[in-house]
TrEMBL record:
Mode of membrane association: Multi-pass membrane protein
Protein name stated in the entry: sn-1-specific diacylglycerol lipase
Compartments in which it is found: Cell membrane
One MF term in the entry's GO annotations: lipase activity
Species the sequence originates in: Hexamita inflata
Gene3D superfamilies, per the entry: alpha/beta hydrolase
Length: 208
């Protein structure tokens, strides 16, 4: 749990990383180097936190390594994600909340809600923990906000904003397609999950 909570970005050679995952990757690679050195071909793999650590391990171990990651959290800066597309593959399932757990992604999501509220009568956007109005509002949210959500993510991104690393494969209804790291929030914008997993009052306050 402490690894997940140490989320402040740490920089290394012009890249930024989730500090908790970075520290875990450092420890793992240090042990690995002591056993096999740097001249072996190594494949890292993991799920969720393990996926984030695996992706950073490819950076710390070097060019002889690759990573195959599943349900990868946002753990690296955008320039790292682009540069390491040939070494890191991140697989994300539709409806998976883990890739959205970053300050940047949550800010973008909340701003979408504000944009929707500005574009429509506020009484049409009543996100509630229970009841059908939430489900009825979700299609409106996706229809009105998604066309510009990628641009919203780009506009709000800072050099230390954290994203899903590498080549990103999105799995939806049995089909796989490659997506951009700025599109993750757009594809995963399920406010029902947000209310289930985050503080309900804070989410509702954003709509006031």
């Amino acid at each position: 749990m402490k690894t997940n909570l140490d989320f402040y970005p740490i920089d290394d050679r012009d890249f930024y990383f989730h500090s908790g995952f970075y520290n875990q990757a450092q420890n793992l690679v240090a042990h690995l180097k002591s056993y096999i050195g740097l001249n072996q071909n190594v494949v890292f793999t993991g799920h969720s936190m393990g996926a984030a650590v695996s992706s950073i391990c490819t950076f710390l171990y070097g060019n002889n390594s690759r990573a195959f990651c599943f349900s990868t959290p946002a753990c690296c800066s955008s320039n790292f994600s682009v540069k390491y597309q040939n070494q890191i593959t991140s697989v994300i399932n539709d409806g998976d909340l883990i890739p959205l757990l970053s300050t940047h992604a949550l800010t973008v999501m909340l701003n979408r809600v504000q944009l929707l509220k500005a574009a429509r009568n506020a009484n049409e956007v009543q996100l509630e923990p229970k009841g059908s109005k939430l489900e009825e509002s979700l299609p409106l949210l996706r229809r009105d906000i998604n066309p510009s959500s990628k641009n919203l993510s780009i506009m709000q991104a800072e050099k230390n904003s954290l994203f899903v690393p590498g080549k990103i494969l999105f799995v939806e209804k049995g089909k796989i397609r490659e997506v951009n790291y700025h599109e993750i929030g757009e594809l995963q914008a399920n406010i029902v999950m947000g209310i289930q997993h985050f503080a309900e009052n804070e989410m509702l306050d954003a709509l006031k």
